[in-house]
């Protein structure tokens, strides 16, 4: 992807977070906002949202860049060369800005009059890119041996106090969630705290495709550093979907099975989808 030369963009994205709540996805903590007109940091740690005017850590915002043919496209990994424009709004706010022409004006100012074409489905493209960033991170943690799947396996590790992050598919049965949440609280000596795993905005079919396994319903990480690495793409996704809590879902399959079976063989798995929606490649 090529854009007018101006601002150099690093090919790295610091995936850091603090606190158990952010690591678990609860609260989807955002960076500290500054008022409009606040001084811009020269070290690249912060960027200004072109729609809200607020400053935030660049790793919590979403970068937009221009393709060679002038199309505005999401660059969620911030790897495309040249000048970028940053947004920190939700999908609903972005759609409103597009409908009112505010995004077009903001981008025209950000890209200094360069010819632009804003796809009508830009919000969907951003959502897909954020999902891809999150599931790619999940895959990396699984290959490194830090990610657990399967209710029985997770419950055993949770009660043993070695689970740092717990999550459930959007269509997981509430009873299965409660049992694992309780096991996690026991292992963390946090009984009575109400601490629960995060309900992901992805159903079991999407998680199964992303990880290459059948019927992935529950996920756990056994290392706090892995939980911190995952917190960035997850918090950005939840924020874009207006989900600072556990509400909402992205449905990628038909009606879920009422039984909360997992991939360890307690019931026939949900057949994997042939392909998962993907986004542009860097």
Q: Which SSEs are present, and which pair or pack?
A:
Elements: H1 19-24, E1 46-48, E2 55-57, E3 62-66, E4 72-74, E5 85-87, H2 91-99, H3 102-110, H4 122-143, E6 147-149, H5 151-159, E7 165-168, H6 174-187, E8 198-199, H7 204-211, E9 218-221, H8 224-240
Parallel strand pairs: 7-8
Antiparallel strand pairs: 1-2, 3-4, 3-5, 6-9, 7-9
Our measurement of the CA-to-CA distance between the termini, rounded to an integer number of angstroms, reads 7 Å
Approximately how much beta-strand content do the residues carry?
A: 5-15%
CATH superfamily of the largest domain: Ribosomal protein L30/S12
N-to-C order of helices and strands:
HEEEEEHHHEHEHEHEH
**Overall 3D shape:** elongated
| Percent in helix | 25-40%
- Tally of DSSP helical segments: 8
- Which secondary-structure class do the elements indicate? alpha+beta
- In CATH's first tier, which class of the largest domain applies? Alpha Beta
Q: For the largest sheet, list the strands in their spatial order.
A: 6-9-7-8
- Name the poorly predicted regions: 1-43, 246-282
Q: Determine the mean pLDDT.
A: 78
How many strands, which pairing sense, and closed or not: the largest β-sheet? 4 strands, mixed
CATH architecture of the largest domain: 2-Layer Sandwich
Q: Provide the CATH topology of the largest domain.
A: 60s Ribosomal Protein L30, Chain: A
| Computed Rg | 20 Å
Total strand count, please? 9
Q: What does the oligomeric state look like here?
A: single chain
């Amino acid at each position: 992807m090529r854009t007018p030369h101006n601002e150099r963009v690093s090919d790295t994205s610091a995936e850091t977070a603090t606190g158990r709540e952010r690591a678990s996805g609860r609260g989807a903590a955002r960076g500290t906002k500054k008022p409009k007109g606040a001084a811009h940091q020269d070290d690249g740690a912060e960027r200004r949202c072109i729609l809200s005017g607020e400053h935030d850590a660049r790793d919590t915002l979403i970068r937009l860049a221009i393709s060679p043919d002038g199309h505005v496209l999401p660059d969620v990994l911030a790897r495309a060369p040249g000048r970028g424009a940053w947004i920190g709004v939700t999908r609903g706010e972005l759609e409103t800005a597009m409908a009112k022409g505010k995004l077009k004006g903001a981008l025209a100012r950000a890209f200094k009059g360069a010819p632009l074409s804003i796809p009508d489905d830009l919000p969907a493209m951003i959502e897909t890119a954020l999902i891809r960033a999150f599931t790619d991170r999940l895959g990396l943690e699984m290959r490194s041996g830090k990610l657990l799947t399967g209710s029985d396996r997770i419950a055993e590790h949770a009660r043993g106090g070695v689970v740092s992050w717990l999550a459930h598919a959007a269509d997981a049965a509430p009873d299965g969630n409660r049992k694992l949440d309780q096991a996690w609280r026991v292992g963390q000596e946090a009984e009575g705290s109400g601490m629960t795993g995060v309900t992901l905005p992805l159903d079991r079919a999407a998680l199964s495709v992303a990880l290459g396994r059948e019927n992935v319903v529950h996920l756990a990480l056994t290392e706090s550093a892995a939980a911190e690495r995952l917190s960035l793409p997850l918090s950005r996704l939840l924020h874009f979907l207006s989900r600072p809590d556990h509400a909402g879902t992205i449905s990628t399959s038909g009606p879920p099975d009422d039984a909360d079976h997992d991939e360890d063989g307690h019931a026939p798995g949900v057949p994997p989808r042939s392909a998962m929606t993907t986004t542009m490649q860097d």
